[in-house]
Amino acid sequence: MIAIDPTDRGLLLGDGLFETLLALDGKVQRPLVHLARMGLGCAALGLPAPDQDEAMKVMADALSTSGLTHGRAAVRLNWTAGSGGRGLNRPLTLEPRLWATAAVSLKPDHPARLMLASVRRNATSVTAHHKTLAYLDNVMARREALAVGADEAVMLNHDGDLACAAASNLFWIEGTQLLTPDLSCGVLAGTERARVLAAAAEAGIEARPVQASAEALQRADGIFLTNSLNGLWPVSHWQGAAVKTSPDTLRIMTVLGGP
Fold first, then answer.
1. Distance (Å) of CA 245 to CA 2, 149, 180, 250
2. What's the whole-model pTM score?
3. CB 53, CB 47: distance < 8 Å
4. Which DSSP state fits 113?
5. Same domain assignment for residues 120 and 96
């Protein structure tokens, strides 16, 4: 069991970052991509980046200790500003903490049912653009979704533009175009989001980051979510109504690595 210092700034103030990575048969998938994103978050928060070799070791140790060297597992890598300082002020000399945990990760066995959350995304906040430990808005959005029988919640920003889901990036299809909220809308630059956009470009599929209202999902020819654990997760319902799926949608999702 990992002991967490009760004075850790990550615990008390959300002063830190995390990455969630998929592991298959004990091998963490795309670790360098995730560590690079954590490095960008460190630069934004004024933290040193964790040592790459140490990060790989603690993730491997987490999988081994949890007995998850076979099958699918979710590995969470945590990096905090450590302890010290009074109130909001960090100590003059930082002693960051790094640790990882691992848990079984089952791929969803049904398409996602989406609802619109009342919680809004603050597009001007560092917490919207980096994977910080301050995730309460996402927690509350997900609670709203589960309370009405949905799987995931879609969040708008304060301008009323689509941003993301509570723990996923959002994509939809109009005709043969692939659309996703622009990063400026308060969107985390998801690793799977980047992979899908790259795959679309390679396949010659027109993909555009946009600013759009929730009405765009009502007229969409298909909707799906992405994150590092689920890959591409098709959506079957939006606000209780079935999402239509055109032949072009099925083709596009197949090309991009969908089920």
1. 45, 22, 17, 7
2. 0.95
3. no
4. E
5. no
88 and 129 housed in the same domain = no
Please give the tally of structural domains in the chain.
2
Q: Are residues 169 and 249 in the same domain?
A: yes
DSSP run (H or E) holding 80: strand 72-80
Q: Does one domain contain both 29 and 121?
A: no
Residue with tokens 């091998």: 27
Q: Are residues 98 and 192 in the same domain?
A: no
Residue 2 lies in a domain: no
Strands 222-227 and 169-174: antiparallel
- In the chain, what are the helix, strand and coil shares in percent, each to the nearest 5? 30, 30, 40
- Kindly report, residue by residue over 62-93, the tens digit of the pLDDT: 999 999 999 999 999 999 999 999 899 999 99
Query: Does residue 194 lie within any of the structural domains?
Result: yes
* Domain ranges, residue 71: 9-104
**In this structure, are 147 and 96 located in the same domain?**
no
Could you tell me the CA-to-CA distances from 5 to 82, 103, 136, 234, 258 in Å, in that order? 9, 21, 21, 40, 41
Pairing verdict, β 177-181 and 207-210: parallel
Contact 48, 110 (CB under 8 A): no
Question: What confidence tens digit (pLDDT) does each residue in 98-142 have?
Answer: 999 999 999 999 999 999 999 999 999 999 999 999 999 999 999
Assess contact for 57 and 78: CB atoms under 8 A: no
